[in-house]
Amino acid sequence: MNPALTAAAAGFGTGLSLIVAIGAQNAFVLRQGARRDAVLAVVGICALSDALLITLGVGGVGAVVVAWPGALRAVGLIGGAFLLCYGALAARRVLRPGTGLRAEGEATGSRRRAVLTCLALTWLNPHVYLDTVFLLGSLAADRGALRWTFGLGAAVASLCWFAALGFGARLLGRFLARPAAWRVLDGLVAATMITLGVTLAAGS
Q1: Which of 188, 190, 165 is nearest to 47 (CA)?
Q2: Fewest 10 Å CB contacts: which of 14, 55, 152, 173?
Q3: H or E stretch including 146?
Q4: What's the predicted TM-score (pTM) here?
Q5: What does each C-alpha distance from 148 to 37, 84, 124, 131 come to in angstroms?
Q6: How far apart are CA 183 and CA 188, in angstroms?
Q7: 113, exposed or middle or buried, with CB in 10 Å at 0-12, 13-18, 19+?
Q8: What is the pLDDT of residues 29-62, one digit of tens each?
């Protein structure tokens, strides 16, 4: 097999394995996609942010990131507090269905709020720096001259995943037509956000 194709495929597989796990960012993208609210903007932010972080990692910034543990701790505390607040809001929607989304999935949120929330969930998570910048950067370095091809594969994986998650959530329209389904989704979001928030704050 062509070495460049092999490196790109390895980058794609590695990148996908790092972002597929349910996390705060994925839960948010799923919810925005299900309610058809600022989906293109949210998917674009996630994919472009990952591409930028991957570029930094492949370019050798990963070593700098891990050399500043104080900065990562600060990001962890801020990110943990943010996730706890967002999780509390999601839990409130579970307990008060009347404040949740309309079942037909009509977009009722603010695009600006969705964009700012997406940026916070992406950039206030210290794990994204360790995984995307340091880990991917280290793996890419092992590819030598093909490290950028490896990074490109990882960036494409990120784009494919977030596009599938955001726009594919619309296929759940019939299921989400029931108000109880939104409570389940918000319960998943709340549990994910609160768990990650406590983990980040405790580990900082």
Answers
A1: 165
A2: 173
A3: none
A4: 0.72
A5: 34, 36, 26, 17
A6: 9
A7: exposed
A8: 988 888 888 999 999 999 999 999 999 888 876 5
